[in-house]
Specification:
single chain, 253 residues, alpha+beta, five-stranded antiparallel sheet, 12 helices, 51% helix
């Protein structure tokens, strides 16, 4: 039954009209139905290194309201949370070219460090519980990263569900390769963590007032971050910023 559903989903993903975004969204909605996930993200990982944050940009996602997505970005930018996740990225980047690696939260973090202290608090605030994380290396500095989530307190993902996600995402190599900025986010790792959060919220379609509210910043501070972002990235408007990162329209949540 799983095999028939998986083949049908892959065939329909190829056949549906639209570009890469529509196909990624369709595929991920189907995977979430098959593995009973609550939410998902598909993002570009940039310049990963041990001790750095989980540097990501160009999020497609579903299942997050604005506040939960802002809390999620805080978790990604936290160095302690990044240290817990580092075994996954280290194994991914050490593997063969074009290999897809898929791991559950329990495999990445067998000692359950992500449930304690600051890291646990961050993921509690974002309502992130069980995780299946998949990644494919795109080049020396960038990764295609996909994660599906259940909420805090939900049952962990089992081997069957991890295997379904892994097989499905292994069969769409072409979707991993498209939809990214021309430079694959080369400048993003050089931004400060708060700048990256503001950038991702801008790319997600938030206006300045909403960004200030969700990050608990003054409007003047947000204006300053955006001014610095525009200068660093060589753009002069929100529309040009969206085009710079390959977005033809705002993503929904």
């Amino acid at each position: 039954m799983d095999a028939r559903a998986m083949v049908r989903l892959l065939a329909n993903t190829v056949a549906i009209p639209g570009g890469h975004e529509e196909k990624k969204r369709f595929l991920m909605a189907g995977i979430c139905d098959l593995v009973r996930a609550d939410s998902w993200v598909w993002t570009l990982g940039c310049g990963f290194r041990e001790g750095g944050g989980q540097t990501c940009v160009n999020f497609l996602h579903h299942g997050f309201d604005d506040d939960r997505f802002a809390r999620y970005l805080e978790g990604l930018e936290d160095r302690e949370a990044s240290a817990v996740a580092w075994p996954f990225y280290e194994a991914l980047m050490a593997g063969e070219e074009n290999r897809l690696l898929t791991m559950t939260r329990r495999e990445i973090d067998p000692d359950d460090r992500s449930s304690a202290g600051r890291v646990g608090e961050l993921w509690q605030r974002a309502d992130i519980g069980p995780i299946v994380l998949s990644g494919r290396v795109l080049d020396e500095q960038s990764l295609s990263l996909i994660a599906v989530y259940r909420r805090v307190g939900d049952a962990p993902f089992e081997l069957r569900e991890k295997t379904i996600a892994h097989i499905m995402l292994s069969e769409v190599r072409w979707l991993h390769e498209i939809g990214w900025p021309v430079d694959r986010g080369a400048e993003v790792p050089h931004l400060a963590p708060r700048q990256r959060m503001v950038l991702n919220l801008l790319l997600d379609g938030m206006d300045r007032k909403r960004i200030a509210a969700h990050l608990d910043l003054s409007l003047n501070t947000v204006h300053g971050y955006i001014r610095d972002l525009y200068r660093t990235l060589g753009v002069n408007s929100h529309a040009v910023l969206m085009k710079r990162f390959g977005f033809s329209k705002l993503s929904d949540s």
